[in-house]
Request: fold
Amino acid sequence: MTEILDAPDMRRGLHLFTDGSFDPKSGHGGWAFAAYRDGAEIASASGGVVKAENNGMELRAILEAARWVDANASGETAVIWTDSAYAIKGCTLWRPIWRNNGWKKIGANANLRNRAIANKDIWQAIDGALSRNAALTIAWCKGHAGIGGNERADELAERGRLSLRPLTN
Reply:
């Protein structure tokens, strides 16, 4: 078990740290989350994906964390932390707009207008999970800054990605 070892408010309540990992050379990705209650790790999960992309892995980690909360702490106040600015903006700003626009980009640029957003299926699943649990908050934390939960999620995501490597003698 690891401890968060960060700000006092992160040592109380339920906090889940998420991260994604991606290697452009192989195209393999990994996702992970680590769940903490009152500063102590209580659960974690990770996985690997062939033919992945970086933002997709960040989003998959958030989705899996939200699903874990649904299954294990439904209705409990929880914070899902991510170091992805894209994921934060998507969850807090763009998601309602995308939902209202049928999960399509709408804007002044004619080349982008009416195009489906990237990772539409993951975004729709995240939307459903966040809409079902009003006590679930998405928040940003600085990556690679010594935040214990973030470092643990980063390590697990890398492990998930590396699990896809073929075994060699």
The CA atoms of residues 23 and 33 lie 19 Å apart. The first strand starts at residue 14 and ends at 23. The chain has a mean pLDDT of 89. The helical segments are 54-72, 85-100, 120-132, 148-162.
